[in-house]
From TrEMBL:
Pfam families: DUF3700. SUPFAM superfamilies: N-terminal nucleophile aminohydrolases (Ntn hydrolases) (SSF56235). This is DUF3700 domain-containing protein. It comes from Mikania micrantha. Residues 2-79 form the DUF3700 domain. PANTHER family: ALUMINUM INDUCED PROTEIN WITH YGL AND LRDR MOTIFS (PTHR45952).
Length: 89
């Protein structure tokens, strides 16, 4: 989704290994096949490291969770939680 949550964004890996983005899933279906997925809201793609990052917790790893057979798109993405630190006196 865009920053206002109104326009969906999709992405995938093409057969030649390039990362492709579009706001129309049908445009990417042929070139990306099963790697096509909704771009996770609240994230950005870093070309410097070739990975997704979360705006709120950019140091946390983002994990792809394979989609079930009923779902059209290839994966969902989850941001790993930060460890909870407790203060002791």
């Amino acid at each position: 989704m865009d920053q206002h949550g109104k326009v969906p964004l999709y992405w995938g890996i093409t057969a030649d290994g390039c990362v492709a983005f579009a706001n129309d899933a049908d445009l990417l279906k042929v070139g990306c096949g099963k790697s096509l997925a909704s771009f996770p809201q609240g994230c950005f793609y870093s070309t410097a490291i070739g990975e997704l990052r979360c705006y709120e917790n950019p140091k946390n790893k983002i994990t792809a969770v394979p989609a079930t057979e009923e779902e059209i798109l290839g994966a969902k993405y989850m941001v790993e939680a930060s460890p909870i630190l407790s203060a002791t006196q």
